[in-house]
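Suppose you are handed only two things: the residues of a chain and a line of SMILES describing fe (ii) ion. What would the bound structure be? This form records exactly that question and the answer produced for it, so the two can be stored side by side and reused later without any lookup.

QUESTION INPUTS
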Amino acid sequence: MNNTQDTSANTGATTGAAPEAFRHDTAFQVRDGIHSPEVLRLSAAETHVVDFGGIYSPSLKDRQAVGRAFRDAFTGPGYLVLQNHQFPQSVITRARAAMEGFFSLSVEDKMKCHYLDWPNHRGYVPLEGINADHSLMGGDMSEAIEMAEDLPADDPDRLSGNRFYGPNNWPMSPANFRWALGTYYDCQIELGRQIMRAFEYALETDEGFFTSKYTKPLSRTRVCHYPPQGAPVPSQADAPEASASGPDGDIDMAHIGIGAHTDYECFTTVWQDAEGLQMLGDDGRWRMVPAMEGAFAVNLGDLMQIWTNDQFKSTLHRVINTSGRDRYSLVQFFGVDYDVDVEPLSGTVSPDNPWRYEPIKAGQHSENMVSATYHYDEE
Ligand SMILES: [Fe+2]
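ANSWER OUTPUT
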């Protein structure tokens, strides 16, 4: 890939020399400020909230207005918070209960569905099981279940070599986990189709440009649990205005909830029941995204950065759970069909913004990045 981003800034202004183990294999994830502990705490009024209702409107003007709000978000703060999205709250409530039931099991029971014992990247990822920030080589203080569309083992696309298709590695307990999280996945896929439409308006492509590539998408759900770290910080919901602070107490920045990274696909939705998600702005400053009732945070992934030829940047983000209690989140990564060629849209290329990327298969980029983050290369 011909990525022309400046990689010389690597670990950011606050961290000095790059750690010995730094690997220059993740150009999307190299940004100023990446390891700064300081975070801006925004009030709800300062958060980029988008009313998504217009995407369902028969009026083209309403749908285009949602597209403009997306464009403003991804040429500005790099994220948005989606409200009025029509996603059923009952599905979130059931998923939340089932995931708490699973993460309350003993480590021994949870390890019975370990992801490395399964062929297609599904199953339990234990505490400190990965390091999302490839520049630190630490261990992330969260545990998760990776799941996706539950396809049969003899799915023809899987048999033809598309490694990430196939069956889920479901836990045996709680008994309703499969129903609760499988339903969550299905509803997210539908929400993702609507978000794909919003990107079509944001980028003024033909209607159907993205949704036509979203027929058997390489999308995943990451079902997450973050234990609390450091001294609790009061909820920012009551904050009258933005304020900056670092986490109190002993927090090793190489062992936060999940280290700084970009997501690998087109975009991601995050439901969170407590604060912790932070996004890095172009100014090199971290911002905490408030946990808003019934809302999803949306950040951009690498594939959309390629498609927009850097007009929209994939969002560097991390999690530090300073809420003082266990934090549960549901993270949905939205890809497109495995064999779609991703390359800059013609409308994004100009003399001022020349062609930056060679085409890459959507599935191949995900495979490359997952292999670098998880421990397949150590098997
Ligand atoms: Fe992420």
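WHAT STANDS OUT: Confidence is low (pLDDT under 50) at residues 1-25. The chain has seven helices and 16 strands.
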